[in-house]
Amino acid sequence: MKRLAMLVLVLVTLAGCAAIPTNTQPKPIGSKDNKASNTPTAPEPRQNIDPFTLVRDFIEATSNPDNNYASARAFMTEDASRKWDTKNPTIIETGFSTVPTSQAPQDKTQTVLLQGKYLGRLGSDNAFVPQLGDFQKPVKVERNSENQWRISEPPAGIYMPQGIFNTTYRRITLYFYNPEFTVLVPDPRYVVIPPATSIPTRVTELLIAGPGDAVRDTLVSALGPDTDKFSDTLESDDGALEVNLTNVGKDLTPEKRKQIVAQVVKSLSGVTSSRLRVLVDGQQILPDQRDYRPSDVSATAGEALLALNANLQGMIVADGSVRSLTDGAPIKGPAGTGAYSVTSAAQSLDGSRLAVVSRAGGRMRLRVGELEQELSEVDLVATTLSRPTWQLSSGPKEPGTEVWTAVDGTSVTRVTRSDNGSWTAKGVNITDILPFGSISELRLSRDGTRAALVIAGKLYIASVVRDNQDVALRSPRQLQPSILGSAVQSIDWLSQDVLVVSSSLPSWPVTKVYTDGYKMDRYSQSNLNVPVGSVAAAPARQVQVVDPSGLWSASDITDVWRSSGIRVPAGALVFYPG
């Protein structure tokens, strides 16, 4: 009877708990509320395993980050577990080894050598940072009181094989504004997957923290510096994902509120298909609309500013003239007639202006002006000038007013248009880039915040930093060095954070490279011959390349390359606006 009475009491208690209302006003949540919970005991390692298997199993146990990596800590001594630093992981190749050292093993202690190859690491901002080279890390193990091997001195930090990283972390894309607040720019990061229900909250926390380290001086946030979570980002009873913020900033104008909504909606649209609801202190941020989809914020995100006009089909430079990619016919004006002996060219995003590099008496000159008209000669003489590239304009149908080129491989010049219509050359600070070698290719992203470069045949990415009148390329990093090496020929922007790269490598003639450097995809090799000397890419456009046999196009990485009806010489250059 006592047991029956106790059971009834428990059921009554549970019924009372179920009646607690769930729609009460949420309370602000800050870092002080995130108290560490008691870590449950993780499963013990297998009995009587040898030191080398112990270390290998320990590395593989890092796939479970639950309870502060309790599964991995189970392989350590208590003292080692207390001292172990679990900062963001270093990603290594999946084929790592655990081998003996030259030291003779002892009865109670031994040193195991963990060795492999670096791929990269996650920074404090959860962005991927490429890292190259081999590593060897000594790992000391000792027998415990039960005569089982345990790690007494683990390697500092987490070493996570790529295969485990791929299943443990998820790539997410945050969005921040360019300094003019005219366009949103992607900023990729990585978040731990388990538990998946917490991913929206983790994305919100990273968004609140601001732009990543590499673009901290390039991008800006509509969220004020004191912004915090008012509550976790969770799905509401009606199915909308609620992002509830507090301290977002003072004097919030309607325009600033729209910018916050666009930034939040774009950043979270990659992790949910639900409607997004943006709240400030529990109240909707804009009175005229409650829920949003990505299409609702396209105007504030500046998508029209980046979109290419459907009539702009691209161009080709061949035999000293600029031609249409539509039919191969020369364009109107002196650039099309061959009067300038054009070696490369670039069309502004709106299509109204053209910049060409022309050959004159063994020297290179830059000419800029209106499409199909006489082009002004810029006061800039060089032995080599890279293919020009246009900076983002101020409005969707506004002509470009700034074009860049690399001069003699050792400097970068931006040419700006003054109010009287003249074009003036100004220097770009490339102190951070100069040590890497000669610049042969330079392409500004169409949002104007990043630059992709080919330096000594290697692929680099850098951030465009503007400080009043001073413009610099900062935070350069080499992308996919172990595969692309120094074989890169040409580059172009497929989207804001993806490049298409051509090379002289038979097995990698054309690739899609993500700007954080973690991932690359290979286009089909069919029909192409190396070196692939020129590539053109743009959103909603076919990728165009020129190899020794002519002009080819493909829509996706799985497509077989199709030959163009336009006949071009092997050294021709193909380009889209930008």
UniProtKB/TrEMBL annotation:
Residues 22-50 are annotated as: Disordered. Residues 328-563 form the Lipoprotein LpqB C-terminal domain. Residues 44-165 form the Lipoprotein LpqB N-terminal domain. Residues 1-18 form the signal peptide. Coiled coil: none annotated. Keywords: Signal. The keyword Signal applies. It holds the Pfam family Gmad1. This is Sporulation and spore germination.
